[in-house]
What we know:
This protein is of the alpha/beta class.
Amino acid sequence: MPVILPKNALERIQLGQAFAEYDLIRNDPQLFVNTPATLAALDPDAGKCFFVGRRGAGKTAITYELQRKFPKNTFSITPHIFDLLRLPLAHEEFRDTRQRAFKSLMHTMERALIDECVKHYLESKQINSNDLPPSISKERNLIEDCDFDQRILNLTQEIFDAYSNSKDKLWLRQINRSKELADELNRYDNLSGSTLLLIDRLDESWDGSESAMIALMALMHASVRLAANTKHVRPYIFIRENIYDRIRLLDNEFSRLETAVVFLDWSEPKLIELVERRLVRPFNTKPKLGGEAWSHFFEEAESLKSAEAVLTLCQQRPRDMVMLVSYSIESAVSNGHNKITDQDLHAASTRYSTSRLKDLGDEFAENYPNISVILESFYGLGNEYTLVGVEDFISKLLVDEKVKKHCASWFYDYTTAFRFIGLLFDIGFFGLKRKSKVIYKETGKDSNAKLPIESDTHITIHPTYQSALNLRPILIQKLSEEIALKHEGMLEDLPENYRFDSYKEELQSTLQDLQTLPLGKDGATKFEEIVGKVIQLCFFRSLSNIQPKVRTYEGSSIRDWVASNRAAGGFWSVVREKYGATQVVWECKNYEHLHADDFHQVSYYFSNTFGRFGVIAFRGQSLKSSYFNHISTVANKNQAGLILVLTQRDLEVFLRQAIKGVVKEGHIEDRFDEHIRQIS
């Protein structure tokens, strides 16, 4: 019998969130779609350590599936070491992975990973803390008192002190420590199965520097060694593709890593299945997957099949599919359609295109700060270019003041046509068209390989971005001097009363003030102003109507900040839904160590009016375990409320990301997740 859905079927569909951190997939395993990358992850004997894909390719979703399948044998860390670690030697000394400098760093990473595994075994009672072998007993302070990042900082200082002072015997002992620990770990026969150590969301504390690249390269080599040298531990690192490409170029022994790599590649049938699973979720009687379900929700047009139209706009990524179809459903419901029509898809594509263009600039801002300035310069031009047309476009960028001011750190390395085309091809903005066939960058393809550009090759802008840039369907063979690049048509994403230049200058000034501000009462008022600027400049998309709330304490006037939470999605929307936080209180503490009273002061604001969520911003560099005890106490007294504590480093990360044009909320999400784990 054919499946008949109710007329209001589209109104009942909740397709989910485009970001796995908030998505239905966290709690509904039926929505998960198996891909080759997933199957490799589920098989610890497959020998894979690195899962590589662009943003939105499903890396985080795989971690949820692994934690669901192997709850006792899986744990995760989100390292923030990449913008914390200051290499003690010149970067050139780490370039050769066979030399002592790099080996020192690699063994430090391996030792820190083993310690993290032992910590997991101790906490889960899989090994007895009263019966530890000698090498692990010596390591106990590092294991129990340090988190992963602190451990690396301590061990790096220790091993490079020996290296720099020519204490060769001590250096050798440090090098051998990881092997001793691995050998003793292998003697535990009671550890059942493989333990999966998931290392995800590296880019949340990623500054794109060469120091960060070297640290990640050391971590990758350490992970391969650890997987080979231990019977039970399998480290999995989830890496963005553009970062992986830089590692491939930098590493002189990359062949040691590439056999452990799997790319998150999605076929078109798998992408269709992903959407279909979500479409049929609310209904008891479900149409079959594999095309039938799709046809129950989409009205087919004569010129182009709906699935083909959706796939053309999406770049082989689950996030793109979920976002575009969600927008299409909203349009169909708004127009009173029982099925998604071509009109609905067209209306959704404009909104989708704008979102994807901003996300593209955000995704690559760490590597190419403010690259969105370059992308937006195409506004109002054509969707296709000859080589001469590209050269003319570059010539105009070279004299553009906005480009000079905000992209100078990298743009001038890409001013030849082939370099410029290669860059925008690698990030998925450009495609190459020859004889009516268009190719875009394939997942996993070496970005350092030479592109097949011939004299008759045309450069085309991906359909995803054409609507947002208001491109005309014409071939640009050349750009005359009379044609000026313009940004006027682009809706700039800036705080109220700011222009692009003044916004960037204010961010730089605020960051400098924060880094030079004295501690204590003398700088307290200025610190309050700085925190207010961070809220205004970094969270303006979600928090608005920022007002000071002045109170007197010990004869001093103290100013906290209250901001209205009007987020339409993302982290702040989750906070509002979970804690009723329509208003968010920020308390400012211009000192390095918090006290119990600081936490109680925030909790006084918890109410039905404000909600049960508050923020403390202070000048410390790390969070003590006692802070989480105070947070837990407040939570238990206030109906599961939460206080989020942000350090000076967190404030600096928010400002640096905004300077580079990064708009993601990943860093504050990580802080939130850390708090939840610690008090659970």
